[in-house]
Amino acid sequence: MKKIGSAAVVLVFLCLLLGIGYYSGSERRFGESAEMEGDFVAFLSAPITVSPEGYYILQRGFVYYVSHDFQKSTIVCDKLECIHNDEGVENLMDYYECNAYAGVGGKHIYYYKDALYVTGDSIKTSGMFLCKLSLDGTERTVLYDKGTEITGFAIYEGMAYVGDKAWKADSVVHTIKRFPLDHPEKEEVLYETAEYPKHTINQMKCMEGFCYFYLFDPEDIGRESVYLKIDLESGETERLHEPKTCRLELGRDVSFLMEQKDISYEPYDKEKKYYRAKKGEDWEPLTEKDFISVGKRDNLRGLDKKYVYFMTDGWLEVPEPVPEDDYWVRVYEHDGTLAAEIPTGGFGILYYIFPGTEKYMFLATFPEDFNPNSPMTFYYVDKSQFHGGIVEPKRIEMGK
Question: What pLDDT digit, counting tens, does each position of 44-59 carry?
């Protein structure tokens, strides 16, 4: 089948580029948590950020500005003549002449106090860097460059939180560090472990006094995975789940959990269980009477203050494969009321969902050849149209 034949290509691409994974395990009570305003985190990337001026998006290694009405987009560069305008550049290293270029490994971008903070491929080490970029692209300052792979990054209360993976002589070490954005030399280690050499940090977020992250092995999804939180005041780390949980979405007043009995790279019959918990209460099982997506065995993929997001599981093969023209993102209010169905039949088996802002949610699709040098395609969806019917995603055209 076509799905099985393309599975290896998809998964190798993810392992190398994104470290995409499933959440693992759960405790049976809802803990302290909150959601971010403007959620653009998907697994180990956060390629969109919002500012008073508009949106900024990482695509093809470049930082783009996109206006609030999505009618204007341009690379964040003030040079009249710049190499980013050249189509036939063979050596991608030449693109670093443009301050807006972070390398194809760039995964995160955050707006904070009139500046952009971007992760990308280092030209000095074999790892990745974190830099501060002015909004007009005239200034770029490297804040962090340790020869490590940056798999998580967040900004919280003026502090940078960096999750990285370092290859030592006899071990692989995962570390989460923090430092003031204006004093990167004042670095503090919050978490460090060498227990998970095959894993990568996913879904790292900082909110309401905690840092949440998930350690996942993209090469062996049957291996134990861990979802943790760090108390940012005390520095204490708490393990939130047991293994084999597929997805957990934590909210201020309500949270959602999807558990999966069996995990495999091959298409198969996925037995799933879904739960919802209000703050301070136990997890309550959900049925298809509560959410249509439960009956369809959709994947839980996002949560914000008003909505919870599901997407068609394209790997399902039992009782029969899901036709690609029947792929959907289904959006619900927290009580199960269907808010919107977004058709994604042309998106392929894999794409990202970003809950986004109060006005818009976002989607991102991968290139057909899964070449990291090829651009992702971004879409926005107007939440004011969420009245229970079909809402079409609109493509964001990226200019130079």
Answer: 789 999 999 999 999 9
Question: Does 163 fall in a domain?
Answer: yes
Residue % of the chain over a pLDDT of 70: 80
Greatest Cα pair distance, the chain, in angstroms, is 60
- CA separation, residue 381 to residues 192, 273, 302, 367, 395 (Å): 39, 28, 14, 20, 9
Domain assignment of residue 11, yes or no: yes
**Cα–Cα distance between 87 and 79 in angstroms, integer?**
16
Tell me, what CATH number does 271's domain have? 2.130.10.150
**pLDDT number for residue 85:** 65
CA distances (Å), origin 308, targets 256, 334, 335, 379: 8, 6, 9, 18
Q: Is the pLDDT of residue 206 over 80?
A: yes
Q: Is residue 155 part of a domain?
A: yes
Domain assignment present for residue 400? The answer is: no
What is the value of pTM for the model shown? 0.86
More confident residue, 333 or 19: 333
Domain count, the chain: 1
Residue 117 has a pLDDT of 97
CB 204, CB 213: distance < 8 Å: yes
Nearest to 152 by CA among 235, 230, 76, 223: 230
Tokens of 167: 């290859």
Helix-strand-coil split of the chain, %, nearest 5? 10, 40, 50
